[in-house]
Design goal:
The chain is an alpha/beta fold. It is built from 13 helices and ten strands. Helix 4 links the parallel strand 2 and strand 3. The longest helix is centred in the middle third of the chain and has 29 residues.
């Protein structure tokens, strides 16, 4: 079913895992299938943006699958996308499986990181990385541009620091140069007016409606995160992912992930077998999001043709 669906909705990459460095295709398929049977686990690969058409295909396949095993292992690679669809993907996995684990082989950012909150265990390759949960919003007067909420809030914080430092320096300089003639109140008033005249025009450039939109977007990520998160998520992790990182592209590797989640591991033998099965497939699908989207049942994809 996934293969037929992929042909209709998703451009199939010109990649075929015919052989591996260590084993022929038959051996790879048999080892993965044996592991799936022994661990009662389905394996899926999702590589691409988390958007309506691609994510809907994944959700439909999960919900309509009639021969689900008990657990699910998801190889997830994405720069992110829509928080609504990230929630729907995680909710579908939780509905159909007792638990799901996520394998992070490359970029797994923003909305993709939101999906990892529901996982029981996270597995990382050396190149695996998560990202902050700052939902991207459109730039004002720029139809194609996107911006991170962190940009706005960090700008406000930076300007506030500048204004406070300027006030303190101006206040002390006026007071010291007054030689006791200028009172504290007068020095404070002068410093305040100087700060206001300098920084008020800068602060006026920040649109309160835009800030409100960003705040709502971040509250959506927080709300979905609270619903999705599993026992693998540590107490302050959600808030850290939303507000504690300096930029949207911040790299959260396995070492940092271990500070955010209870169970974070390196790839196991079977995951490594899939990851190293074909260099082109690893580079173009597992480490980097496939541009037009790639969704497959791993066993179906690995089955020798």
């Amino acid at each position: 079913m996934l293969k037929k669906l992929a042909k209709k909705v998703i451009a199939k990459p010109k990649i075929a895992p015919k052989t591996t460095q260590n084993a022929p295709a038959d051996d790879v398929f048999n080892k993965v299938k044996t592991w799936c049977d022994e661990n009662n686990t389905d394996i899926f690969i999702y590589s691409g943006p988390i958007v309506s058409n691609l994510s809907a295909s994944f959700v439909n396949e999960i919900l309509q699958k009639t021969d689900c095993r008990k657990n699910c292992l998801l190889f997830l690679t994405s720069y992110g996308g829509e928080a609504d669809w990230a929630y729907k993907m995680a909710a579908a996995l939780k509905k159909r499986y007792e638990k799901y684990d996520v394998v992070v082989c490359g970029y797994c950012k923003s909305a993709a990181t939101l999906i990892t909150l529901g996982a029981d265990t996270l597995y990382f390759s050396d190149k695996g990385e998560l990202g902050p949960l700052d939902v991207q919003t459109r730039k004002k007067d720029d139809f194609f541009g996107r911006q991170s909420p962190l940009d706005i809030f960090q700008s406000e914080e930076l300007i506030s620091d500048w204004a406070l430092n300027f006030f303190n320096k101006a206040f002390l300089r006026i007071l010291n140069n007054g030689n006791g003639i200028i009172s504290v109140d007068v020095a404070s008033s002068i410093a305040n007016k100087l700060s206001e005249s300098l920084f008020a025009p800068i602060m006026a450039k920040i649109n309160p409606l835009e800030v409100g939109e960003i705040s709502r977007a971040m509250s959506v990520a927080n709300g979905y995160g609270e619903i999705i998160k599993s026992a693998n998520v540590k107490t302050d992790t959600l808030q850290k992912l939303i507000i504690s990182y300096s930029c949207h592209s911040f790299v959260i590797d396995i070492k940092q992930a271990q500070e955010l989640f209870e169970r974070v591991k390196e790839l196991n033998e079977v995951q490594t077998l899939i990851y190293q099965n074909d260099k082109a497939f690893t580079r173009n699908v597992l480490e980097n999001p496939f541009k037009t989207g790639f969704i497959f049942d791993a066993l179906e994809f690995l089955q020798p043709k």
